[in-house]
Design brief:
The chain is α+β, with helices and mostly antiparallel strands. 52% of the residues lie in helices and 14% in strands. Strand 9 and strand 10 form a beta hairpin. It is globular, with a radius of gyration of 27 Å.
Length: 682
């Protein structure tokens, strides 16, 4: 009898978790689609998906299918669905219209948004016309770096002399594919302004959608400017970024400190911010309605409170710019409040799974972004942790959950679990992890949650009666304390723990499997065992994976991973391309243009420099030689020789070395996916 009860419990748990298994399968299927080396044909995708789904549904209709097999079938069905949805979204996107560098060219359009950048403000424009190009040939949405003083605001019609190029493609293995992100965001070109953008005489757009987008951009800019002025000079930019999503008023030093201290998640308007806004509105409305006895006896107070919170988060979505990460967070918040309206548990793995499925249906490409991965990893781990905590409390008869001790325990657990769940993704995407991130979050989050967020909410509520400025001053004061913590943690942590090379994708997959096992395990021993096994396997795979030794970029710079000085940037040629994002923070450290350089690496010696300088050392042993011009046939003694002409033709070259010392060359490939067209020479 006991065995039958246990079997029924396992079966019920499996049925409750089917949406989660399906959602995880969708993530896997979409990830497989976006990582394929070539675009699959539409017909073959439809045939394979139809046959696989039909077979799975037929097998699942049999009552004697074992529980483990059913889980595998649900995951497979989710994978087929995720793959198909990703393929469908790609088919709906128009192919890139720009395949070569243009400019300088006169560009006219409406300024919709301003973003910060290392070399100046980044302007997003909806293009009206470009000199020499028809409307069909011109890109519709562009992003331009504006290094001079900005004299125009979002909502204005502007005219700029600009140089445009297609969104850069990854040329380094493991580098972030910005071109894929741009493809699904509708960003057609990037570039820079020559001189200054100036206002033009044309009015608003004819298209209603574009006109609304421009008007919202103008409102957001006005809000950001007001908050920046009222919150104080020290934290005004931080406050403006949190309220409107406009980071252009923030200093690079503050953004770097937040990033290196593990507090950068405060900058991204995501689940945390929407959750705080929604929670404040929800509890305020619920408490207010509960004091009205007549209404409280007839209408559940939580339902109108959930409806009000849903509308508040929708308004915040619009005011913050409705970025991809904010849209994803709004979907998650909307499902939570809809669950309250439908008398369902708002915080459960089932609700979490439904939110993930909704996001993947609307934005399948977001599965490859750090925002999606880190937010869902942290949310899922926290829900699983608190469900286990609740079960343990119920088992030992603990019912009281109030007071400062419980709040402190919750804060510590939340920060620790969130940091552990997001660490693999931070290492993979950013090659660094903040050593003092947990301590910084423990110090900063109480200030942010109990002072900053309520002050911002009160500023919105008291704006009609003219008391918002006082609340914004408190908002700015609290954020000054958060910035002080960020700068302290960044300096004490020595800028963050950086990796010598990018994390291999296989390592991230193993860590994700370990995280899933830790969340879904049936016992503490099982969860610990699965996590430990995943960590051991990932460490072994990482040690055996090939590592980059030298990368020669289309920008003309060579990046050498030396044994003594780390990664060095060597200006070697005058290229027109962009450096890989992976090495964006590496400054020039060696000059090999006049003569040459001899570096020691894990793969042996690397000679870089002028052909004459290299020719004098042809009899010396070297593993790799980088030269701007051809060398004599007998020069090199078996070394791997890379010439600048090959870089111009192929775009870049990366030389990798495995544990045995064998060298292999990676060259980026184009034309195989819709977002990686082969570029033409200007």
């Amino acid at each position: 009898m006991a065995q039958d009860v246990d079997a029924d419990n396992v079966r019920n748990v499996g049925q409750m978790r089917r949406p989660l298994y399906f959602a995880l399968g969708m993530c896997a299927g979409a990830s497989v689609y976006f990582t394929l080396p070539a675009e699959p044909s539409t017909l073959s995708s439809i045939l394979v998906a139809t046959l696989t789904a039909s077979l799975i549904l037929f097998v699942m209709s049999r009552w004697d299918t074992p529980a483990g097999v059913r889980i595998l079938l649900v995951v497979t069905l989710g994978a087929v669905t995720g793959f198909s949805i990703a393929k469908a979204h790609t088919r709906l996107r128009a192919p890139p219209v720009l395949t070569q560098t243009l400019g300088p060219v006169m560009l006219e359009g409406w300024l919709t948004d301003v973003e910060p950048g290392k070399n100046g403000n980044r302007l997003r424009l909806t293009v009206h016309a470009m000199a020499g190009l028809s409307p069909q040939q011109a890109p519709q949405h562009v992003r331009l770096t504006h290094s001079n003083r900005l004299e125009v605001e979002p909502g204005r019609f502007v005219r700029c002399w600009a140089v445009l190029r297609p969104p850069p493609q990854p040329e380094f293995p493991g580098d972030y594919p910005f071109n894929r992100q741009a493809f699904f965001e509708g960003l057609d070109a990037v570039g820079y302004v020559m001189g200054r953008c100036r206002g033009g005489p044309l009015g608003a757009q004819v298209n209603a959608t574009s006109r609304l987008e421009t008007e919202i951009g103008a409102i957001r800019r006005s809000l950001a400017r007001h908050v920046n002025e009222e919150a104080g000079p020290r934290a005004g930019g931080f406050a403006a970024a949190l309220t409107s999503g406009d980071r252009s008023f923030m200093s690079q030093a503050d953004m770097e400190a937040l990033r290196n201290s593990g507090l950068a998640h405060l900058l991204a308007i995501s689940g945390l911010h929407l959750g705080i806004v929604g929670a404040l509105v929800y509890f305020a409305v619920r408490r207010t309605l509960s004091t009205w006895e007549w209404l409280a006896l007839r209408v559940p107070a939580q339902k109108p409170a959930a409806a009000a919170a849903l509308m508040a988060t929708a308004l915040y979505l619009v005011l913050s710019g409705a970025s991809i990460s904010t849209q994803r967070a709004f979907i998650m918040a909307a499902i939570v409040f809809l669950a309250i309206l439908l008398d369902r548990s708002p915080l459960s793995l089932r609700t979490f799974a439904l939110a993930m499925i909704a996001v993947l249906l609307l934005q399948p490409a977001s599965v490859m972004t750090p925002g999606f991965q880190m937010s869902f990893a942290a949310t899922g781990a926290l829900i699983a942790t608190y469900e286990a905590w609740s079960r343990r409390a119920a088992a030992i008869g603990e019912t009281r959950r109030r007071g400062m001790l419980f709040a402190l325990k919750s804060l510590v657990v939340t920060s620790a679990v969130g940091a552990a769940a997001t660490a693999p993704f931070a290492l993979y995407h950013f090659d660094r992890v903040a050593p003092l991130g947990l301590l910084a979050n423990l110090l900063a989050m109480p200030i942010f949650s109990f002072i900053s967020a309520p002050a911002a909410g009160l500023a919105l509520v008291t704006w009609p009666v003219g008391l918002s400025d006082l609340c914004l001053a408190v908002f700015g004061w609290s954020l000054e304390r958060v910035l002080a913590i960020a700068h302290w943690a960044s300096l004490a942590g020595d800028g963050g723990l950086e990796l010598g090379g990018p994390m291999p994708p296989s390592v991230l997959i193993l860590l994700i499997l370990g995280l899933i096992g830790a969340c879904l395990g049936n016992s503490v021993q099982q969860r610990f065992g699965l996590s430990a096994a995943a960590l051991a396997a990932s460490a072994l795979v990482w040690m055996l994976s090939p590592q980059a030794v030298v990368h020669w970029s289309s920008s003309g710079d060579a990046y050498v991973v030396t044994t003594e000085r780390g990664v060095l940037r060597v200006p070697l040629a005058d290229g027109e391309g962009l450096a890989p994002l992976h090495y964006a923070d590496v400054t020039a450290s060696s000059d090999c243009l006049n003569d040459g350089c001899d570096f020691r690496t894990a793969a042996g010696r690397i000679l870089i420099g002028a052909p004459d300088w290299i020719d004098e050392r042809c009899d010396e042993s070297a593993a790799i030689i980088l030269s701007k011009k051809s060398l004599p046939p007998d020069c090199g003694n078996g070394a791997m020789v890379v010439l600048w002409d090959e870089i111009i033709k192929d775009g870049a070259a990366t030389i990798l070395s495995d544990v045995t010392g064998t060298l292999d060359m990676y060259r980026p490939k184009c034309g195989r996916r819709p977002w990686t067209p082969c570029l033409k020479n200007p």
